[in-house]
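Weekly modeling sync, notes
Attendees: S.R. (lead), two postdocs, one rotation student

Agenda item 3: backlog of single-chain predictions. S.R. asked that every request posted to the team notebook include the full sequence so nobody has to chase files. The rotation student volunteered to paste the first one in as an example of the format we agreed on. Action items at the bottom.

Example entry:
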Amino acid sequence: MARKVTYSVSPRINPRDKDATPKFYGHVQASGDISLREMAERIQQTCTVHKSDVFAVLVALEDSITDALQNGEIVRLGDLGSLQIGISSKGALSEDEYDESLIKQARINFRPGSALTGILTNLTFQRVKVKSSKADEEAEEGAGEGV
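Predicted structure, as returned to the notebook:
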């Protein structure tokens, strides 16, 4: 079954050529988010496990993933994918000259597995307006009020 992903279009300036005419690019507009509690509720509806048990397992999974990553382990989540710590660093002229001070930052690398990459083949897209920010909404409300 095809799922619709909403997107909007907005102008972007080329950071290397700020005088160039902006180009328009599409970007996904999230339809919301889901908490661990909501995820536990959805999982409960598809199996015989109670929501509180599912929630406890999800919290324990979060803790286990965090601990494993801090221990330098690759976390393999089956067909969902894997997580691993990665680093960005400056280069050294030789292996002996390289030390920890050259590491600029750490990040978490996620490599999607077949369950996630598979969903990308059945997507359809629907264009929507750009979501306005809270400041834009307040400005519109203020403009409508007479002084």
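Discussion: group reviewed the output briefly. The chain has a mean pLDDT of 89.
Action items: rotation student to repeat for the remaining queue; S.R. to check formatting next week.
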